[in-house]
Design goal:
The protein contains 1 helix and 24 strands. With 304 residues, it is mainly beta. Strand 16 and strand 17 form a beta hairpin. The longest helix has 4 residues. The protein starts with a helix and ends in a 16-residue tail after the last strand.
């Protein structure tokens, strides 16, 4: 998803010096840090981070022997050549790594953990972009060594990752959840807690969803587990599980699936719904036409 292979592709940042430019710089040797202000640009290992101001922090030199303080003062620790510990960038933070970009109000790079964390303030949330795909969340953590991404309260807009039927309009797919974890090695995007998928007139809700994609970043399958509700127009279906095949554009419902359509109810062992043609296939089907009431099956309406 999100051409997920492209979105999360980011080679590990190798150790090395940090190159920087800024309008002003102040070194604070005792605090082992350097303050940069105005048009800040930091680069390391192919990653470029820009912002309004930054604080570069250095780790203590473990191999340097401890020196006893002199009677008339203490020797100033030097910053040049010290090992980078982290840098913090604030104000219009922009990250560039290959073709991918990210923006946010606040960013922290941790050299030991090999992570870059973007956070926002108020309604100004960080955004990760790859072409027409966008990923927004309260907090975006990029793991630069494993190429994985963790996002709190992710909101995705997918345009090229879900293949359309021939001559069908290109509809964006929007996904919301409490958390998203992208595992590049498994080509897996795992959404957890209050997952909502919206696309055209289709809305799907569930507690968790696994999305698998191929090497080119195209979505192949969605697996929803733990109680699923699907709405398409006047139709509503509920089941324990739902599997979506992106190639056939068909949803397979299992685990006591039920389909409600304008008062009619279909029940079966498996219910397959074709999203393009609206065709339905039911295995071991039985049903009832326009029942007077089935309040025990009622659920709150899904907002479009």
């Amino acid at each position: 998803m999100i051409a997920l292979a492209a979105l999360i592709a980011a080679a590990s940042a190798p150790p090395g010096p940090v190159d920087f430019t800024a309008q002003t710089m102040r070194m604070e040797p005792r605090e082992r840090r350097t303050l940069l202000d105005g048009a800040v640009r930091l680069s390391r290992g192919g990653m470029v981070v820009t912002g309004d101001r930054a604080v570069v922090e250095f780790a203590p030199d473990e191999q340097q022997p401890q020196r006893k303080p002199r009677r008339r003062g203490r020797e100033e620790p030097a910053l040049l050549g010290q090992k980078l510990e982290r840098f913090t960038v604030d104000g219009n933070v922009h990250v560039q790594r290959g073709a991918r970009t990210a923006d946010g109000p606040h960013g922290v790079y941790d050299a030991k953990a090999q992570t870059l964390v973007l956070t926002g303030t108020g309604n100004d949330d960080p955004v990760l972009r790859d072409g027409s795909e966008t990923l927004t969340g309260d907090r975006i953590l990029m793991r630069l060594d494993t190429e994985d991404v963790d996002v709190q309260k992710p909101r995705l807009v997918l345009r090229r990752s879900v293949p359309e039927a021939q001559d069908a309009p290109q509809l964006p797919t929007r996904v919301e959840a409490a958390r998203l974890s992208l595992d590049r090695s498994e080509r897996l995007a795992r959404f957890t807690d209050d997952v909502v998928v919206r696309r055209g007139d289709v809305v799907v809700r569930g507690p968790r969803m696994d999305a698998y994609y191929d090497a080119s970043g195209q979505l192949t399958h969605l697996y929803l587990r733990g109680g699923v509700e699907l709405r398409q127009g006047d139709r509503r279906a509920v089941a324990e599980n739902a599997d979506y095949d992106a190639q056939t554009r068909e949803v397979l419902l299992t685990g006591e699936p039920r389909l409600f359509d304008r008062g009619d109810v279909l029940v079966g062992e498996r219910i397959a719904m074709a999203l393009d043609s609206h065709e339905v296939r039911v295995e071991r089907a039985h049903g009832r036409l326009k029942p007077e009431a089935h309040q025990d099956e009622a659920r709150p309406a899904v907002k479009p």
